[in-house]
Recover the amino acids of this structure.
């Protein structure tokens, strides 16, 4: 019995294949991109010393709309 280094889903398709639609592969890619976005937001806050909304000057527009 040999083992492969690729993870195979229950439907015998490679989990890393890019497929359109609501598939397990799409959900894995969605999670990966969400993790990248979250890490980019944390890195922006850490390097700039202010929140992401303040960094992009979006909090200014929110405070103007409340007045």
């Amino acid at each position: 019995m040999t083992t492969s280094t690729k993870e195979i889903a229950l439907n015998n398709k490679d989990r890393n294949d890019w497929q359109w639609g609501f598939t397990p592969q799409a959900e894995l890619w969605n999670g990966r991109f969400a993790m990248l976005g979250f890490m980019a937001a944390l890195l922006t806050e850490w390097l700039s010393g202010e929140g992401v909304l303040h960094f992009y000057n979006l909090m200014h527009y929110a405070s103007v709309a409340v007045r």
Q: What stands out?
A: The chain is about 55% helix and 0% strand. The CA atoms of residues 36 and 42 lie 10 Å apart. The chain has a mean pLDDT of 77. Residues 24-66 form one domain.
